Amino acid sequence: MSKAQDPFYIVKEEIQESIDKLQSSFHQWERILPDTGEQVHLTKELLANCESIEWQVDELNKTIDVAARDPSWYGIDNRELESRRRWTITACTQVGDVKKSVVARKENGNSASAMRRELMKLPISHQSDRSYQYSAEDNDDFIASESDRQMLLIKEQDEELDELSASVERIGGVGLTIHEELLAQEKIIDDLGTEMDSTTNRLDFVQKKVAMVMKKASAKGQIMMILFLLVLFIILFILVFLT
C-alpha cells in the first residue's frame, strides 16, 4: 500500500496541519498583552486545540499498536513501525510544550490579577496618583474599537473551530474504516485457522489408516500379491502379443 493510500499517513497529514496552526496561534498569543480579552479568549482556544490534537495522536497510537501485532499482514516492517512511533512522540512533545507554556502564563496571569485586586482595596493614600485620565470621548472610541476587534476575533475563531470540527469528523471516519477493515481481516484469519485445523485432522486420520493397513499386511501376503500381479502380467502379454 502506497503512502497516499495508507490511512496512517492521511491522518498524520491532518494532525500535522493542526499542529502547524496551533504553533502559529501560539506565536500570535505570545505577542498579545496579558489580561486582555483577546489574550484570555485565545488562551482558551489554544488549550482546547491542544486537547483535541492529543486525543487524535492517542487514537493514532492505538492503530499503531494494532498493526504491531502482525506487521507483515499490513505490509509494513518494524522499521516503519518505529518511524511512526517516533513521529507520534514528536507530535506529543510539540503539543505538550505549547500547553505547558500556555498553562504557566495563565497561572502567572491569575496571580498578578489577584495581586492587583488586593492593591485596589488599599486606601487611596497608598495608591499612586494617575499621570493622566481618559476623557469620556476617548473612552468611547477605545471601547468601540475594542468591541470591533473582539467581534472580528470571535468570527475568525468560529471559522477555525468549524475547520477543526470537520477535521475531527474526517479522522473519526478514517478510524472507523480502519476498525472495520481490522475486524474483517481478523475474521478471515480465524476462518483460515479453522480450515487448517480441519485439514490437519484429515491428514492425521489418513496417515493412521495407512499405517494400520501396512501393519496388518504381512510379508507373505505381500509376496503373494506380487506373484499374482506377475502372473496376470504374463497372461496379458501372451494374449496381446502372441495371439
From TrEMBL:
GO-annotated biological processes = Golgi vesicle transport; intracellular protein transport; vesicle docking; vesicle fusion
Q: Which residues form the T-SNARE coiled-coil homology domain?
A: 151-213
A Pfam family that this protein carries is STX6_10_61_N
Q: Which domain of life is it from?
A: Eukaryota
Give the stretches traversing the membrane. 223-242
SMART domains per record: t_SNARE
One GO MF annotation is: SNAP receptor activity
* Subcellular localization(s) per the UniProt record: Golgi apparatus, trans-Golgi network membrane
**Keyword entries, A-Z:** Golgi apparatus, Membrane, Protein transport, Transmembrane, Transmembrane helix, Transport
> What Gene3D superfamilies does its record include?
1.20.5.110, 1.20.58.90
InterPro entries given for it? SNARE, Syntaxin-6/10/61_N, Syntaxin/epimorphin_CS, T_SNARE_dom
Q: Which stretches are annotated as coiled coil?
A: none
Question: Which GO cellular component terms, listed alphabetically, does the Swiss-Prot or TrEMBL entry include?
Answer: endomembrane system; organelle membrane; SNARE complex; trans-Golgi network
UniProt topology in membrane: Single-pass type IV membrane protein
Protein family (similarity comment) = Belongs to the syntaxin family.
Q: What is this protein called?
A: Syntaxin-61
User: Which species?
Assistant: Gossypium hirsutum (Upland cotton)
